[in-house]
Amino acid sequence: MKRVKRPELRLHGQKVRLKKKPVILAVSVLVLIVLLVSVSVHAASKKHTQKVSAGVAEETAAAVEETTVAEEKLSEEETTTAEEETTLPEVQTTTAAAPQTDGEGEYPGCKKVYLTFDDGPSPNTTRILDILDQYGVKATFFTICSPGEENEESLKRIVSSGNTLAIHSVSHEYSQVYASIDSFKEDVLDMQQWLYEQTGVTTWFYRFPGGSSNKVANCDISDCINFLNEQGFVYFDWNVSSGDASAKCVDKDTIVQNVLSEIGSREEYVVLMHDAGAKTTTVEALPEIIEYLQANDYMILPITANTKPVQHRHS
């Protein structure tokens, strides 16, 4: 194998032999340049990466903050909604039910008188209503079935003028009303229906013909009272009697004296009077009775669902 000779360089006629050292130096310089470039690129890349990472971190933090705010807002809205649903007012419902008394009465501490008239309507009803209007007071009418245009108009006026309409019976015939418990039930419900047809008012107030302590009933009054209670009626007797039923026409002054002599220091009085056609002296006595009561600070009231019932007997 032949050996290749190195080229020779002649300088000023002298041979100059090339050496390896300049080549090594050049290579070293090149390597150094490459390294410097690499370091520079790496530094720039790292800086960019850090910048990008910082930006991403900022965006992530902002996103997290927005999410947190949104969640807090949603939570507040849900809480508010829940509170609103929790505090919705209760729906108050009412039903057409019979009145019930609580036994305490109305206007405690005040002296009260309830003027009541049995057996109407009659030709005297209009006169009684006129007197009540004149003195600005109301009363209660325990009525019987008395058909006729004038009587039916009186029933309507009792209601429209703020007085209380109540049931006494259909006929007031003891032998019919109290023939049996079934006849008693029929009498009460028929009278309630008839009054509703005349006035549009369903009344739940009742007075026994002869009172709950009467001795003429063929049926047991206790059964009658139980029926009234079951149906939702409230019955009223009296604790003051005008005495106007003791004769066909009792003297006016006697009626006044009978009433006023029984009015004292109690808080509540229920006065029994009558609205039959023959009871003209009862009408005449009424103004004097009212004037005395008003002068002595008695409240004159119609019976209502808040009135404490006066009852002679219970079931």
UniProtKB/TrEMBL annotation:
Residues 66-105 are annotated as: Disordered. Coiled coil: none annotated. InterPro entries: Glyco_hydro/deAcase_b/a-brl, NODB_dom, Polysacc_deacetylase_ArnD. Residues 74-87 have a biased composition (Acidic residues). Residues 111-301 form the NodB homology domain. Its EC number is 3.-.-.-. It is an enzyme of class 3 (hydrolase). The keyword Hydrolase applies. It holds the Pfam family Polysacc_deac_1. It comes from the Bacteria. SUPFAM superfamilies: Glycoside hydrolase/deacetylase. GO terms for molecular function: hydrolase activity. This is Polysaccharide deacetylase family protein. It comes from Lachnospira intestinalis.
